[in-house]
Every structure is written in C-alpha cells, then in structure tokens.
Amino acid sequence: MKREINELNLLRAILCITIVLIHSMTSLALKSDESLKVLIQFLQLFLLFATPSFIMLSEVILSHAYQNHLPKNFFKKRIQYILIPYIIFGIIDSIRFIAIGYHDDLFDSLWTKIIEGKWHGWFVIVIFKYYIIHYFCHQWLRKIPMYIPIISTFIISMTHSILFFHIDQYYNFWKAIYPFESKTMLLWWLFYFVCAYYIGQHYEYFMMFIQQYLICIILLLLIAMLWITHNFYIEGITIVTSYRYDNIIFTVLIFMLLIFSLRMFSHRTSSGQYNIINHCFNYISNRSYYIYLSHFILLYFIQEILNPLIEWPILYVTTLCSMTIISTLLLYSLIEKLPYSELIIGKKKKSS
Fold it and tell me: What region holds the Acyltransferase domain (predicted)?
C-alpha cells in the first residue's frame, strides 16, 4: 500500500466543510423570502461539487493505494469502519425523526434511511458500489486504453442525467423500478468512478497533465459555470442537487484544480504558519466521515438557537457552519474515549 498523499487529506477536509456550508445555506434558504432564497440556491450550485468529489476521492485513494490488487480484509475493514457507523447514525437519525414527529413508525423510518438511502448518508451506498465495481473491474480497466471507458461512461452518465431531468417517461420508469434514493443510482456515478480510478492509477502523470493544460482547464471551468448559470436563470432548472447534468463537467474540472492547488500548497508547508493550517485541515480530514454522518443531526438543533441571527444572512450561515463543525468535533472527542468507539466514529487516524 502506498503512503497517503497530503493534498488528498486537505481536499477531504475542504469537501467536508463545504458540505456543512451547503446545508447551513439550505437552513437559511428555508427561512428567507423568495428573492434571497433564489440567490442562495444559485450560490449553492457552485458548491455542489463537494459530495461527488468526496465520492470520487474515495476511489482515487483506493486506486492509488492498491495499484494491482485489494487486500484480503478489504471489505471486512470497510464494513466495520464505514458500514456499521452508517447504520448506527441511520438509527440515530430515525429516532430523531420519530421524536420530532416526522415519522411515527420506527421500522419504516429505519428501512427508508438505512436500506433505501433516503437521508443525508446516502453517499455511503454509492461508495460501497464503487468498492464492488473496483473489486470486479479494476484488472479489466488497467488493460484497456483509458479513453474508451472515460468517453463511454461520460455518454452514459450525461445521457441518463439529461433524460432524468427532461423526459417524464424516463423519470417515471426509474421511479417505478428503483425504490431506493434516486441519487444512489449507479448510472449517475459511472463517469466519476472511471475518472477517479485513472487519476489514482496514474496520479503523478495526472498532476503533470493539469500543470500542462492548466489554462485550458480553467477556461473550461468558466464555461461550465456559465452553463450552470444559463440553466438556472434561463432554463429554470433551479433544483439544488449534486446529480444535475451540468454539475458533471463542473465537478470533475474543479476536482482536478483543487488537487493541483493543494499539491502546490502542500509544497509550502515548511513555514510555521502553513504548518498550523495544514494541521487544522488534517485534523478535520481525519474526522471527516464522522462529521458527514453526524453534522446534519446537530445542525438541526443548532439552527434553532441561531434564529436571532437570521436578519444577517452571512453571519447566520458562517456561525451555523462553524458551530456545527465545532460541535461535531467536541462530540467526537467524547465518543472516541468509549469502548468500541470506532463502530460509531469510523477508523481513528492520528492527525499529522
């Protein structure tokens, strides 16, 4: 297994913070008038890269760490440190829903969340699908030219997303035969998987590719942002969801630029100032999976405390985001002292 790459740890922390920020903005949008709500939704579109990027990141790390084959205990460890915490937080969130009156049947709530994936932990189902695809397909992907799966999966994922948004018959077909959370459908995620797989397999080549075509990638990113803006204001596609078809290209491009930028930053961590920043981000990164699973539950209660700040939108969002992250980290520090705490918080890592 290869050593961890620091910029990927830093990226994990940034994505984690971005997810909490998106949900904090949603809290504000639900309490705002229509004009402010529209502005918030528009701004959120440019943060939607976070969840797909986090899912991609899991495959980049896996593909880079295990170039040729997976270890024998691969699935056992991920069931223990990823699936079991997912189930435990699914139970906690189901109990919360019963307590606040959103559900009156605990079994139905558990089934809806844990099995169907209809809650904020849905991304874990996609990540496990990535593990399964990697297990069965990685040897095949290594042997064929990368442009073939990249182009073919891009066509599949983009076509599926466009049809899902614009063709009622297609949407109704999938709703009828796929009882799970629609975000977990693999067709959305095939292109992300293939890109992440090859980035991990050829990581240093990938970094040189970005450096060589950096200007082109930035220009393409600007075009992707214009496309998102056009779809929002002209086409009226205002839904804030990570599986928007105009988010696919945007996510992959910003994922590339973030990794490259963080690689440059990592090379400058010799000074004391940068070491402090690096340590803080790694501290969050090593607890990111727990933050993902727990933050929404804590945010629900914290937002009620911060209602007096609602007249100052920026202050409300930044305070809610900060307090939620701090609260999850404080709770983490308490839980990690308990026996078998890794079944709740995931695998413990030492902060660098």
Answer: 6-332
Average pLDDT, the chain: 92
- Could you tell me how many helices (H) and strands (E) the chain has, helices first? 17, 0
| Residues 329 and 53: beta-carbon distance below 8 Å | no
Q: Is 253 exposed, middle or buried (0-12, 13-18, 19+ CB in 10 A)?
A: buried
Length of the chain: 352
> Does residue 228 lie within any of the structural domains?
yes
At residue 279, the pLDDT reads 83
Q: Please give the backbone phi and psi of residue 120, each rounded to the nearest 5 degrees, phi first.
A: -70, -10
Residue 170 makes CB contacts below 8 A (sequence gap 6+) with: 163, 164
pLDDT in tens, 290-303: 999 999 999 999 99
What's this model's pTM, rounded to 2 decimal places?
Answer: 0.93
C-beta separation of 45 from 80 below 8 A: no
**198, part of any domain:** yes
Looking at the domain assignment, is residue 352 inside a domain? no
Percent helix, strand and coil across the chain, each to the nearest 5: 75, 0, 25
* Long-range pairs of 201-208 with CB within 8 A, sequence gap ≥ 24: 201/63, 201/64, 201/67, 201/142, 202/146, 203/5, 203/60, 203/64, 206/256, 207/259, 207/260, 207/263
pLDDT band for 271, please (50, 70, 90 cuts).
low
Q: What is the mean pLDDT of residues 83-109?
A: 90
The tally of domains found in the chain comes to 1
Residue 33 structural domain: 6-77+118-143+194-345
Quote the CA–CA distance of 30 and 241 in Å, as a whole number.
16
Q: What's residue 350's pLDDT? A: 61
Q: Is 236 helix (H, G, I), strand (E, B) or coil?
A: coil
Joined together, the tokens standing for residue 348 give 């413990």
Find out whether 328 and 294 touch, Cβ atoms under 8 Å: yes
